Amino acid sequence: MDEVAALLAILAAASFALAATLWQRATMAAGVEAGAPKAFVSLLTNGVWLLGLVAQILGVLLQAAALDRGRVAIIQPLLVTTIIWAMPLGYFLTNQTITRRHILGAAIVVVGLAIFASVGDPAGGVDDAPASDWISAFIVIGAVCIGLLLFGRRGGLSTEAAVFGATAGILYGVSATLMKPVVEDLHANGFGAVLESWELWVMAVTGIAGFYLQQISLATGRLVTSVATVSVANPVVSVLLGVLVLQERLDQPPAWHAVLAVGGLALALLGAVVAASSSEQEPEAEAATSRPPVPAGAQPA
Q1: How many angstroms separate the CA atoms of 231 and 85, rounded?
Q2: 267 - beta bridge partners?
Q3: Fewer beta carbons under 10 A from the terminal one: N or C of the chain?
Q4: pLDDT band for position 283 (50/70/90)?
Q5: What is the signed CA dihedral for 257, 263, 267, 269, rounded to 10 degrees?
Q6: Does any domain span residue 288?
Q7: Exposure on the CB side of residue 184, measured as CA atoms within 13 A
Q8: Is 249 strand, coil or helix?
């Protein structure tokens, strides 16, 4: 693994975590309702929210630099560390409650990524693929996103944060994977050629759509759940596209390296799921125990 590329990816994850935390702070302070377009527009003049936007742009630039030096299948999984950065940031900036389950999930993520980074070394791969391969992948991804959004409003706030976060992560994964051919095209043919390529515009559209859906997810107030689902869906989609479309693989000798790398990645994703599934259960339990008892014979409100 390229150590510089790995460091750039981890710094990008820290920037994304800071952006998400600042966006949530601004959203909660402004009382923005999840999914309300007019309320979202009002954030465009909010200093904290704009600072988060700067952090997000910095993260994208760091991510692009990492992808320029490394393969999608090795760089994108490192973005799962976003959830680790988000925990202390959320604790100090938005008063998020960090539970034992959150800490356990973060620890599992660290162990899994340490294994993946130690033995993961992708071989092969192309810088771009035929448009027909991309279209087939986009059709499947579009169907998955539509299915998620149809059910996004059918649960509580934690479910809403998870569904919109996962959908945002899927779109971010598509955008990140397309970033690879865009950067390579920029090196080979210059900025003019990049502007004429369909990859740039699809990358931009999916990135912006993911950005908007992430705002809805963060407006629920469930920072860890939102960040965790984005952090899981993003690398999963990127790795799948890297393997199925860009022909990347983890099969360099010895063979057990590939098995261990996949196992480490699966462990890291499991850790993110553990953290996301906490769903602020401890604060809810504390709120329930703090309610005054209902007098005998009285009807609860």
Answers
A1: 11
A2: none
A3: C
A4: very low
A5: 100
A6: no
A7: 15
A8: strand
